[in-house]
């Protein structure tokens, strides 16, 4: 911001359950820049987390729906990737509200461990 006369319109950053950099999100949004959540479903890693599943079950939704709504509630633009039409339809069905208490729980989850595949930028180890 200090070194450019052009303010970005959007900043795409990692934002998902287990990776919620609130200081960065607050800074970006505080400067009237849109936050786009990169990897909102964390490359499907939360699908195997029983604590995340339990919260999703509480709302009667899938884990991907919970993940997408979580980022949406943080005022992030969410563009989940799927080649499966059924997943695309399901991903758009986020008309539910996550309680403040559950949002606080979800913000405290630890980052997803991608193991050997955890190399940025694509989590595929292809550098």
What does this structure look like?
This protein has helices spanning 22-30, 50-59, 63-73, 85-91, 100-107, and strands at 10-14, 34-38, 76-78. Strands 1-2-3 form a three-stranded parallel beta sheet. Strand 1, helix 1 and strand 2 (34-38) form a beta-alpha-beta unit. It has 127 residues and is of the alpha/beta class.
Map the helices and strands.
Layout: E1 10-14, H1 22-30, E2 34-38, H2 50-59, H3 63-73, E3 76-78, H4 85-91, H5 100-107
Parallel strand pairs: 1-2, 2-3
Determine the structural class based on helices, strands and strand pairing: alpha/beta
The proportion of strand residues reads 5-15%
Uncertain segments: none
Mean pLDDT: 87
Helix content: 25-40%
Radius of gyration: 15 Å
- The tally of helices reads 5
Give me the side-by-side strand order of the main sheet: 1-2-3
Bulk shape: globular
Order of helices and strands: EHEHHEHH
Any descriptors?
single chain; 127 residues; alpha/beta; three-stranded parallel β-sheet; 5 helices; globular
Can you give me a brief rundown of this structure?
The chain is α/β, with parallel strands linked by helices and 127 residues long. The protein has helices spanning 22-30, 50-59, 63-73, 85-91, 100-107; strands at 10-14, 34-38, 76-78.
